[in-house]
Design brief:
Blueprint (H helix, E strand, L loop, with lengths): L28 H20 L1 H19 L1 E2 L2 E2 H16 L4 E3 L21 E6 L5 E7 L4 E8 L9 H18 L5 E12 L3 H10 L6 H13 L5 E11 L10 H20 L7 E2 L2 H12 L4 H9 L14 E4 L4 E3 L2 E10 L11 H4 L7 E10 L2 H20 L6 H18 L5 E11 L5 H14 L3 E4 L4 H8 L19
Antiparallel strand pairs: 1-2, 3-10, 4-5, 5-6, 6-8, 6-9, 7-8, 7-13, 10-11, 11-12, 12-14, 12-15, 13-14
Length: 495
């Protein structure tokens, strides 16, 4: 009998959890403190006068109701704040954007709308002499450099190699905690119809003068027919440095020089994660990417213009001519986009291929972007966070003598996170933004079911970014917009 070689164990991944503050009745720490203050106020009112106590009790009940009620996963206070902010923005005209020669913008330019409106493009060279563009957001003191990756994918790759890539990706994220000034990193996988212009240009370049006529015809026919129905996949990694980078009122030239020195090391680390060669994107390339995102109808013209040299699209002209934000979508130039965000990460453990179908091209989704946003904690913050999570999990698991299974599992997960952090693991906050762009609004209804089916294959729960489509669209571009820095709802309203 021949001895059979044992199959390698399938590696799974998980151990992510949403931190929950210690509180009663599902309230967070702030809500619990508010509840106790209200109870004390009621007792004092009863001691003074029973009728006064009843009035105070009614006021406290009305005030606490928005924190206790849940509306589509949010507290009532959060839902009310979001709705009020939407109404206020509409009254102020913030849902409408017009640019171009006939607009009120200085110089008749077509700047980017919304959160990217104050952005500035800076140009520099890294330590290897490669030019790159740096997006500056003055209000948030953020500087973002974007790396274009050439990932080959996991097709025909051994499982051991994939496990190595995943391990190197985790090590790369953990190392960001030791990178001074890092505010966040976003990974964007964008799929769109391939215009075929790049293939035609390459074929034209390869045809030698005097080549056989038959060979020339075959190449030309292939260049015309192969792109039909094919998809173009682009992968970008945006690295954002925060206010710590500009401490001491440093000049932009100093910041450009420091970031230029750091980029090659970060790019080389990405190469070991399966991302392929990571090259900094130039200012022109970033402007072209933003322009096509807001005006997908010009994608073919931009590809064709690249063959003749610079396209001439600058950062000040990368925005749409018109954009209109609605409650559930964003209309911009030649496209209509809807954006979802991750409401819940996969429960339990998953395989490394869990996001494959979500990020792959889909025939019913004309243009799709999936953006993963990571915000690493530095080692000091990480230790405090995991210790606090353990204390909160213990409180939530022991406040009821009959602790629920989910609270007990959350306690085990918190303790395991603390053990791993003590062993040198990093602590990273992560989120996901999914944007789908279609030519007309009539096609949006069909995309809703497709996106939810793709989310189900990834074992995540997506929710439509109602009332904040413009901001969510900007965050999904991977241009340095980190939404928590622009949030207007305080943490006190959160559970």
């Amino acid at each position: 009998m021949t001895e059979q070689t044992p199959l390698p164990a399938v590696r799974t991944y998980g151990q992510w959890r949403l931190p929950k503050g210690a509180g009663l009745l599902g309230l967070g720490t702030g809500g619990t403190v508010t509840l106790f203050v209200g109870i004390i106020a009621v007792l004092i009112g009863v001691l003074i006068d029973v009728r006064l106590g009843l009035v105070v009790a009614v006021v406290v009940a009305v005030g606490m109701a928005p924190l206790l009620v849940r509306v589509n996963g949010r507290t009532g206070a959060q839902a009310m704040a979001a709705r009020l902010a939407w109404w206020a923005g509409r009254r102020a005209g913030q849902d409408s954007y017009r640019s171009g020669p006939l607009s009120a913008l200085p110089g008749g330019r077509a700047r980017l709308p919304g959160l990217l409106a104050p952005s500035i493009m800076l140009c520099a060279k890294d330590a290897y002499g490669r030019p790159f563009g740096l997006i500056k957001l003055p209000w948030a003191h953020h500087y973002t450099a974007v790396l274009r990756c050439n990932a080959d994918g996991a097709a025909l790759v051994d499982a051991a190699q994939i496990d190595t890539w995943v391990a190197n990706w985790g090590a790369w994220l953990a190392a960001l905690a030791h990178e001074p000034g890092i505010a966040g990193v976003s990974v964007t996988i964008e799929t769109a119809p391939d215009s075929g212009q790049r293939l035609r240009s390459e074929v034209t370049r390869l045809i030698a003068p005097g080549a056989p006529e038959l060979a020339t015809q075959v190449l030309q026919q292939a260049a015309q027919s192969y792109p039909a129905g094919s998809a173009q996949v682009a992968t970008r990694v945006a690295i954002t440095w925060g206010p710590a980078m500009v401490s001491g009122r440093r000049e932009d030239t100093d910041i450009l020089a420091e970031i230029g020195n750091r980029l090659p090391g970060l790019a080389e680390g990405l190469a070991r994660t399966g991302a392929g060669a990571a090259v900094p994107m130039t200012a022109d390339a970033l402007a072209e990417t933003a322009r096509v995102a807001y005006d997908p109808g010009c994608a073919y013209d931009v590809d064709a213009a690249r063959d003749d040299g610079p396209t001439g699209i600058g950062w000040a002209d990368a925005g749409p001519i018109a954009a209109q934000e609605f409650w559930n979508c964003l209309r911009h130039d030649s496209g209509v986009s809807a954006t979802w965000y991750m409401d819940e990460a996969p429960r339990g453990t998953v395989l490394s291929s869990v996001l494959t179908q979500l990020v792959s091209p889909h025939p019913q989704l004309t243009r799709k972007r999936v953006t993963l946003v990571y915000r690493p904690h530095n080692p000091g913050e990480a230790a405090r966070i995991v210790d606090g999570d353990v204390r909160d999990a213990i409180f939530n698991a022991t406040k009821n003598p009959r602790a629920k299974a989910r609270a007990t599992a959350d306690l085990r997960a918190a303790e395991q996170s603390a053990d791993e952090e003590a062993s040198g693991a990093g602590v990273v906050r992560f989120a996901m933004v999914v944007t789908v762009t279609v030519p007309s609004g009539a096609q949006l209804a069909a995309t809703e079911a497709v996106v939810r089916n793709l989310a189900a294959t990834a074992r995540i729960r997506l929710r439509r970014a109602y009332g904040s489509q413009s901001a969510a669209f900007a965050a999904g571009l991977g241009m340095g917009v980190l939404l928590p820095h622009y949030a207007s709802v305080g943490r006190l309203l959160a559970p």
